[in-house]
């Protein structure tokens, strides 16, 4: 795993943190991973800041789960109040889940008018796959080559980023995400992307698996945040629909205002008014850390599934989770966090591009091939030469150099050479200035 602590490695952690690390490794087991060469022992959070056991303030430029800020008072109050009144599942007639579903689906274009709730993004992905495969009576699915969609068996089967120890079944076809760094440019990359989708559909059909659809993270974040050219996912969706499949937009990471719009797929619909995915998967930031997720779809698709398949999730849509989710929508609306994410994101994007250009002029620091961003979702891609040869070592060194300056990011991408910058939506101007200053220092130190 990129950006991971190596179990048993020596650290400079204080004695009490080292003891906690030993206890953790003893009882949590090897599947768990810790971020950073030198792990961070956190004890509390507030807004876009996290604090360690010694009281040091870390700037959180990575965690999108607390979308409206760590320890958000409105979310805390809403959940606490609801737990003192009623917290049960969706098989009783209750007001809150209906009110929230109406409010949530009202944020989507037609025909996306219904919601099914679950607890995690993985569960929602699992359900979306079941719906698509039931509709097609076929298992064949297309995903991008370094996609991550979750940890259930079905979601892991379509998550090649989990590594070689997570084999993919033959009814999952991989396509390369459009690459704006290597090759003949974004338009050529789109043509290649669409050609790969057509070929994958033909392969799945020829091998007898049939074709249920394609699921894509709407900003291709695990593939390195591939954003251009805008519209390529809409054009891909048309190919999928023409072959009888469903398009599933995984909005677990880009959803709820991350890109400066409610949903990441909206970046691709400017030249296709009224276009919408067939299914949308929501998760992580939906409850600001309280487990809740959803699949959004049309009445026609849900009716075809629900008339033949029973689905129930005990805690999906429970009253306390719905209270958290409603508070998140309140925060985003009342604090104008969509506009805020777009504005502060543009400051970060411009600042990072200026730093990259300055570094290139001076010949200092690791080579930055490209800086990309949409709202408060940004990436910095490192290459060892002008041809774009991936430089994962540079990315990991920058992650650790920023961590030394108490700024938290991670690295991802097909080649693990891309910084992933994805702070809470409440990241403000002062946070952006601190981040850019720290980035400049870390780059110069490399």
Automatic annotation (TrEMBL):
Superkingdom: Bacteria
InterPro entries in the record: Aminotrans_3 (IPR005814), PyrdxlP-dep_Trfase (IPR015424), PyrdxlP-dep_Trfase_major (IPR015421), PyrdxlP-dep_Trfase_small (IPR015422)
Sorted UniProt keywords: Aminotransferase, Pyridoxal phosphate, Transferase
GO molecular function, one term: transaminase activity
KW Transferase (keyword) present: yes
Pfam families reported for this sequence: Aminotran_3
Family of the protein in this entry: Belongs to the class-III pyridoxal-phosphate-dependent aminotransferase family.
Record-given protein name: Aspartate aminotransferase family protein
Organism: Leucobacter weissii
Classification of source organism: Bacteria, Bacillati, Actinomycetota, Actinomycetes, Micrococcales
